[in-house]
Amino acid sequence: MNTIMSAFDSLRRWGGPMTLTLTLCLAPGLSRAEISDGVVRIGVLTDMSGAYSDLAGPGAVIAAQMAVEDFVAHQKPAFKVEIVSADHQNKGDIASNKAREWFDRGQVDVVTELVSSTTALAVMKVAKEKDRIALITGAGSSRITNEDCNDVSVHWAYDTYATGNGTGRAVVQQGGKTWYFLTADYAFGHSLEKDTTAVIEANGGKVLGSVRHPFPSTDLSSYLLKAQASGAQVIGLANAGSDTINAVKQASEFGITPKQTLAGLLMFITDINSLGLKATQGMYLTEAFYWDMNPETRAWSKRFFERHKKMPTMVQAGLYSAITHYLEAVKAVNSDNTQKVMAQMKKTPVNDFFAHNGKIRDDGLMLHDMYLMQVKKPSESHYPWDYYMVRTTIPAAEAFQPLSLSRCPLIKK
Asked: Which residue in 277, 348, 392, 403 has the fewest CB atoms around it within 10 Å?
């Protein structure tokens, strides 16, 4: 326990690039599983201080630690589990170099989290080369399980098809027929705009244009003014994290809203918390997880809140789920061999507070229900973090891209 607490102290003092290591093991005397070096090592690569640090970052490391602690306490494995973590700074080269270092010299078995599609796509290639596993909970691009899919990667929490599908359809059906996109200029933003455009047009809407902004951006004024000049009813925010927060704030400052409606195509509960209900009330968004949905989600989220002082995002909750499923597979096959573990993960349903009867498809996509949420009015919120109304459950088969439309080379048609 002293090791755990010192790790948390280090995390709270984090102020620059570092690697956090946490080792948990059983009491001596239990037999060791057929693990390559007796230790299962999990590498958490995330954004610790940048645009996505609030929705992933330190909270993701805490979620990973909770997953390992709970697994060791309840499953009592005959092997040690170690977590290492580092900041990829949302840069693909830093992420791929760190993953390669971990695989080559650190004996890391799986790299996970990987918020930002640039880092996820880069690390997936290294994982395939080194025959290790990549569990992606933070990145969103649908390319991860399409053009760039491989047999050692799993896309866990959400993707741009699911979030664009849920929110885009709802806004069009509410009368938002004409759209203009404000898009983060990298793989994630491009995928989100593309996937949402398809949904808008399929439901009778029309896209009038788009403008792409650098990632990350603090000043979005010129891009917002172009969106305003388009005359579109809806400005689709194909960005996330601090970019989305800045766009919402600046749209209000310039008087763009409420004349035009903003559609946050990937928003997190931390964004709503930062912006406040007054600024976000009535907005639709699509989530994989909400802390206040049922007794299971509340119980885990309150434990998380005790350590992080914020409620978890779907990225953080999804990371706990992914690591737990991975460790259960390692225990089941008594090995950390990549192919054996992946086969076990794919044949075993995911049943936890994050997903019920989830399934990992052959393209690497973890199928699970998604939820269309609407942000409450301030008068409708009765306690801290009481932000959402669940408008509808989107079944997994409807939320995610059908396998028949897959562009993944692993899928034979």
From this structure: 392
Q: What angle do CA 111, 113, 114 make, to 5 degrees?
A: 85
Between 3.40.50.1000, 3.20.20.70, 3.40.50.2300, 3.10.580.10, what CATH number should domain 161-288+370-398 receive? 3.40.50.2300
Bridge partners, 80 (sequence order)? 39
Low-confidence ranges of the chain (pLDDT < 70): 1-33, 413
CATH topology of domain 2-158+292-367: Rossmann fold (3.40.50)
| Contact of 74 with 30, CB cutoff 8 Å | no
